[in-house]
């Protein structure tokens, strides 16, 4: 695992190598800014899902989540909580990457556009989807129910849950593209902002792109 401040860079030689080996490029945005733009519908959908989850979870919360409208105040601690949310979100991505601690092909990074986790490992489709959607599921769906049971579902926590849901929009876009474009038993490889799929004919389905 390595830390970086640079966004993943497309490698033309790696692209030619993968195509020659039978990998099929996904039809997807080639730039992060374009991906963010196309992810806006998922931002709305994720936020609505999180709102529904929060409403349902509030019903089991023992009086800690007020029904009345509350205001949002941005202060220093709020920015700290947002930064911590970003870290936790990316760490969840990271820890579900296969062998992330020992992998020399896995990176965690911070860029002015976003935080990100990136790996050049070849990963099975199911595992890739799990890596992409884990932060949304854990922080914006599972967490509200758990916090509600223990009476910890406060308005401040609810705001963070909604922000995480919105911030997971690019992950949702990527997952949707992979879900509908790649057949069932496939492997996924990454090259900068480009991703590729190939039928998984091995028993393990995971290896490193070298």
Q: Mean pLDDT across all residues, rounded? A: 87
Low-confidence segments, given as residue ranges, are: 203-210
Integer-rounded radius of gyration:
19 Å
N-to-C order of helices and strands: EHEHHHEEEHHHEEE
The portion of residues forming beta strands comes to 15-25%
Shape: elongated
N-to-C span? 16 Å
Helix count equals: 7
> Structural class, from secondary structure content?
alpha+beta
| Strand line-up of the largest beta sheet | 2-7-6-5-8
The biggest beta sheet is recorded as: 5 strands, antiparallel
Percent helix: 40-55%
Number of domains: 1
Number of strands: 8
Concise overview:
The chain has helices spanning 12-20, 32-38, 40-58, 76-95, 125-149, 155-167, 169-181, and strands spanning 2-4, 24-25, 106-110, 115-119, 121-124, 186-191, 194-199, 207-208. It is of the alpha+beta class.
Word description of this protein:
The protein is α+β, with helices and mostly antiparallel strands and about 210 residues long. It has one domain. Helix content is about 50%, strand content about 15%. The radius of gyration is 19 Å and the shape is elongated. It starts with a strand and ends with a strand.
């Amino acid at each position: 695992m390595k830390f970086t401040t640079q966004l993943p860079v497309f490698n033309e030689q790696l692209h030619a190598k993968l195509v020659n080996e039978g990998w099929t490029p996904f039809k997807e945005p080639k730039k992060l800014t374009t991906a963010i733009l196309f992810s806006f519908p998922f931002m709305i959908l994720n936020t609505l899902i999180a709102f529904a989850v929060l409403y349902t979870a509030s019903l089991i919360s023992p009086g800690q989540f007020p029904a009345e409208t509350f205001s949002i105040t941005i202060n220093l601690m709020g920015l700290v909580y947002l930064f911590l949310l970003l870290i936790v979100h990316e760490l969840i991505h990271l820890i579900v990457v296969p062998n992330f601690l020992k992998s020399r092909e896995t990176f965690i990074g911070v860029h002015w556009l976003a935080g990100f986790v990136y790996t050049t490992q070849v990963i099975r489709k199911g595992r890739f989807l799990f890596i992409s959607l884990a932060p949304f599921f854990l922080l914006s769906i599972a967490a509200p129910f758990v916090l509600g049971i223990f009476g910890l579902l406060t308005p401040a926590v609810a705001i963070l849950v909604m922000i995480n849901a919105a911030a997971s929009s690019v992950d949702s876009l990527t997952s949707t593209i992979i879900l509908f474009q790649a057949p069932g038993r496939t492997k996924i490889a990454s090259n900068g902002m480009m991703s590729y799929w190939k039928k998984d004919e091995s028993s393990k389905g995971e290896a490193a792109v070298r």
